Amino acid sequence: TYDVVATVFFLDTAPNLVRYLETILSCLKPGGLLVNVGPLLWHFENNAPGNHGRDDDGDGEHDYNNSSGIADPGSFELADDEVMALVERVGFVVEARETDRPAPYIQDDESMMQTLYRASTWV
């Protein structure tokens, strides 16, 4: 078990955030901290669990031959306030929170393209 788990640009990869949070909580010592920094750019939506998003015939349906069952049904995307409510519901106590924190991603100061997220940061 750990005193602290840090999640950086990570939680929004969860098709089911409840499972991620429960797993993190089980890795922490009593009184341990979860430190999170990252946006909520949920990016699993095109990859249904079990078939990795394959749609061989282009009809928008996940093809039977590529499916390995129901895998992890119930994928969902939450807004920041919903994530915070879930974090507390799972058993974490939020000690500090900041929203809209500028968070550059793969930044090159000399590039014409600048990617800047508004991250949710909390302990």
Automatic annotation (TrEMBL):
Region labeled Disordered — which residues? 49-74
Q: What does the entry give for GO biological process?
A: methylation
- Record-given protein name: carnosine N-methyltransferase
- The highest taxon in the source lineage is Eukaryota
Question: Which key words tag this protein in UniProt?
Answer: Methyltransferase, S-adenosyl-L-methionine, Transferase
List GO molecular-function terms, semicolon-separated: carnosine N-methyltransferase activity
Record-linked InterPro entries? CARME, SAM-dependent_MTases_sf
The record's family statement is:
Belongs to the carnosine N-methyltransferase family.
Which EC number(s) does the record attach to this protein?
2.1.1.22
Q: Which is an annotated Pfam family here? A: CARME
Q: Has the keyword Methyltransferase been applied to this entry?
A: yes
* SMART domains, A to Z: N2227
